[in-house]
Task: structure prediction
Amino acid sequence: MSRPQILQENQSYSFRSYFELPYDTDDILAEFGYRFQIQRLSLPRSEIELPRLNDIKQLWEDILPFVSLSSETARRELLVAPLLMEIVRLCHCQLRIEYPVNVSSWLKGELDYLLRSSRQTFTVLEAKRDDLTRGFTQLAVETIALAQMEEQEILYGAVTIGEIWRFSFLDSHSQTITQDLSLYNVPDRLSDIMSIILGILTDN
Result:
């Protein structure tokens, strides 16, 4: 049975539009010819030492009991930004914030965070309203746009609400996007999150 068409040819859609659409992830990705699956990913891991790991964790443990994380701005500035800045310091990759992308009328908007090394590109989406499910749908569409723009066959991304991270994997050859079954929380699994992102950015 054929799927009903979701996206209209004469309409324009920003990345944020896909967060708001009341459709399942697999139905939205099918509009771009992609298949959606959920399974445990075997993610790259870096052996780079994390000398400031304990400092970041200690800082969080010291201040988070006194800080409200009810706003997206608070989570971005206190949880997401320090982690990504340490990634940049360790791998000397580029970091772009609110990076504009315009591939087509269906694939355009701003990426919350874009990390780019000489080997790989990695995007991070901060999910609005603490909604990881809809946030992943938006992330998946963003990676489709980025894969086309960068002409990359393999592309990783992550969606986060600050305290929790989930990774994605895009394979443009098989036109498949995989949502990792695992969730990573901070501060307890900070080392895992950082080693994975570093592994993605420095992997051959």
Remarks:
- Residues 72-91 form the longest helix (20 residues).
- The chain is about 35% helix and 25% strand.
- The first strand starts at residue 35 and ends at 39.
